[in-house]
Amino acid sequence: MKNNIDWNNLGFGYMKTDWRYFSNYKNGSWDEGHLTIDENIVLNECACVLQYAQTCFEGLKAYRTVDDKVVCFRPDMNAKRMADTAERLEMPPFPQDRFVEAVCSVVKKNVDWVPPFGSGATLYIRPYMFGSDAIMGVKPANEYQFRVFTSPVGPYFKGGAKPITLRIPDFDRAAPLGTGHVKAGLNYAMSLHAIVDAHKKGFNENMYLDSGTRTKIEETGGANIIFVTKDGKVVTPKSNTILPSITRRSLMYVAEHYLGLNTEEREVYKEELNDFAECALCGTAAVLSPVGKIYDHGVEINLPSGMEKMGEITHKLYETLTGIQMGKIEPPEGWIKVIC
Ligand SMILES: *Cc1c(COP(=O)(O)O)cnc(C)c1O
Asked: Can you identify the CATH homologous superfamily of domain 164-325?
């Protein structure tokens, strides 16, 4: 392990590691791919990604387990989701088995950068691809690059997960037949104004509504949402315009099969917000972050779980899923990919 890093005090930011992977697509096929130490990319000034934002990405983590193995969590799901995103953006999907191989090879090469078990830190893995040749008229690129880099990151919320405050914004995230269900960079570019505005006004995140009717809860800019009802059922919004979070799908499985809870994926109306006992955001970065308060145009909704700690069921879900990721709890078949 690298000995000049303070693993216990890492933030959530980019740190250059030794190796990264790239593969180029040209004349209708992907080349064999390479590992490199060069973190820079040289692009034509008119590259499609620069002019028309033809780019998409994924995010997953490698963990050091209790028995000192290095593993990653369901990388096949990221491979599949990136292929789905690529098709929506008219990009050639990167073969899914090669996606998993590339992720594993970069982690293995950077194994000294995987933080120690118990530090709370992990190695974040960022696969992404973009249209790389010069495109002037609006059309898809002819050439693409797929890349994977890694960066050690601390826990998303330092000092434990304190409940956060969301606001319902006057901005939409995803059009009814748009790109909300795919992990495209463009979804993030247009969310930046809303997030800066939320922060200026003292809120942690935006809780977006469906833009078709503005009556239903969707997700935040970068995380799905789960609710717990007063009788202990785990509920998550169903919609075609939210990003299918792997963390959320895993948590719903854990709720049902490990904790014996009832679960429901259904439309969740804004009117129901007062009825829930707990609420949390879920995604790879933080796993689960509890929500204490939701602000809706002058009306405050205070979750009964309060502003001090995670709700009881949220906490159980958190402990179980992170226990599976860290090798402390037997995983469902196929969830843990051992890298070395
Ligand atoms: C990446 C992402 C998530 C979280 O997905 P995970 O697979 O759990 O990391 C949720 N919402 C949006 C909009 C995202 O881009």
From this structure: D-amino Acid Aminotransferase, subunit A, domain 2 (3.20.10.10)
Alpha helices (runs of H) in 110-174, residue ranges in sequence order: none
Query: Ligand 1 atom closest to Cα of 180?
Result: 13
Class of domain 7-153: alpha beta
Return per-residue pLDDT of the chain as tens, 340 residues: 888 999 999 998 999 999 999 999 999 999 999 999 999 999 999 999 999 999 999 999 999 999 999 999 999 999 999 999 999 999 999 999 999 999 999 999 999 999 999 999 999 999 999 999 999 999 999 999 999 999 999 987 766 689 999 999 999 999 999 999 999 999 999 999 999 999 999 999 999 999 999 999 999 999 999 999 999 999 999 999 999 999 999 999 999 999 999 999 999 999 999 999 999 999 999 899 999 999 999 999 999 999 999 999 999 999 999 999 999 999 999 999 999 9
The verdict on whether 183 is a catalytic residue reads yes
Task: Give me 107's structure tokens.
Answer: 């982690």
Q: How many whole angstroms from 248 Cα to the centroid of ligand 1?
A: 9
- For 4, residues 6+ apart whose C-beta sits below 8 A from its C-beta are none
**Number of other CB atoms surrounding residue 11 within 10 Å:** 12
Q: Whole-prediction pTM value? A: 0.97
Residue 292 exposure: Cα atoms within 13 Å on the Cβ side: 12
Ligand 1: centre distance to CA 283 (Å): 5
Mutation to probe ligand 1, out of 224, 254, 318 (largest number of atoms < 8 A from CB): 224
- 223 C-alpha to center of ligand 1: Å? 5
